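Structure ticket #2291
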Amino acid sequence: MRTVADAAIFLLACLAAASAAESPAVAASLDLSLEQKVGQLLMVGLSGKRLEPEAARLLRTIRPGAVILYSRNISSTSQLRRFAGEITRAMENGVIPFLAVDQEGGNVVRVRYPATVIPGAMALGATGDTALAFLAGVATGADLRQLGITMNLAPVLDVNTSAANSVINVRAFSDDAVLVGKLGSAYMLGQQQSGVAAVAKHFPGHGDTAIDSHYGLPVVRIDEKALLDRVLLPFRYASAVGLDALLVGHVAVPSVDPSGAPASLSEKLISGILRNRLGFDGLVVTDDMEMHAVADRYGTGEAAVRSVLAGSDMVMVAWTPSRKYEAFNALLEAVRSGRIPRRRLEEAVARILSLKRKYGLLASHHSNVQPARPSLPVGRHQKIARTIARRSVTLVFDRQRMLPLPRGSRLVVASALSHFLGKMKELFPRSVTLKMQHAPSRRKLSGYLERLGKLAAGSDAVVVGVSNRYHAWLVQRLYRKTSTPVIVVSFASPYLVRYFRGVAAYLCTYSYQPLSQLAVAEALAGRISITGKLPVTIGRGMKRGGGLVLRASARRRPPGIAGGQGALLHAGTAME
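Resolution: structure written out below.
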């Protein structure tokens, strides 16, 4: 079945690439003013959860090519539908904008339940399943389209080769470029098939950095050959099978551009590497121009102009209203003065409008882009997300062969995550739970440590759900304080293992989404099989591809789980 699934994805990729190649420029078919064309070059953010007068004025003045929504704009799916409609109606005398979000899954989510929230890229990496990645893209895209969203800034195609990288980390599929390319391309194809434009990120790679471009300029110190052969391989994969768009990050690569300019402003990286060497002819979008990596050095307006000159088609300005107007006016003046050639403007607008036509945004009636159904197919898509959560659970080591834990175990369970604590209490009735704060003070941590030390004395094991370094600090001291075995579940970075090499067992979920919390509790109880494999190398003896397989016991299996082999879907992936 896997062969059939992969063949189906390959066929879809060929059709998508052919469709993209046949799509002609459409700028000439629309009678747009110069101001309207310049507006198409901007992706802007809005404040609030409804269209306020100030935001409406901004939309009517700039007429942006895209509007990006964040968590600050979304409180529920019904509210999002209304907001999407308000934005579209405000633009009824112009070209409808893309409505964009960052819905990566895992730790980067804008739209929550009942929309599908997959556990995230690294969780998919732990499954190693391209068909499942495709289904994740289908589910995410279908839900977003029904809510009025037409563009998603996903998938992440960064190759996470640095354990110190807190910016990407579990947002990446793997530290293996080939696996990232296969899974990312499959996810992208599924999303685009569902009617949502995919914007892969962050070209030219943010996976080997330790600086967050929100606050400073990351520098990737790698030679051009290694950049092309490894770091950019996933982008090459996705481009070859019909990727719609690509987001250029604020990352400097001195080996390609010795000036030190970030990729978002670098002609050598955008036009030289991306367009000419990789052959990508899709839409190029920048990361937010208000990030300190560019704003502090160039100013928003000048950065926008330099980016378009370098080859970007759409510039993001997400937060401050005055900076959105600044970018618009700077671009308009640059075109009028000839600094930005008309040919460069027309080229960018043609790409934007071609992609809008592909997704029905150039239709004469705006009702064509409204959500088609009042409700989401929650059950079917949640089943996909649940399967990813269950199949991604990874048992890195079990030194005392403690798993699965018997139902009658006397456990002490500590975590900041409510779904995990509740499920553990249900599966292990004799357990005692301790709800921790997500980011506790050192004094609070010391209190947790003291209490856990006392509770551990009369227990069979202590299970700690780790969400960050605060909790890792606690574990590091706990296993030295007690002789009771300590089992650690990382709901965050798998690299946290360096803080607690002396624990009895270590499991990873790569996500703190509720479905991942429930899945690892079921795995600890032996109710589901543990089959996940490390998608990244996290230390000595813990290489990519490692992980213990632990089959579920028939007597412990929950209803509907047939030895980890549930009903087969059309894509050939076992669903649980």
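Closing remark: Residues 20-25, 365-372, 557-572 have pLDDT under 50 and may be disordered.
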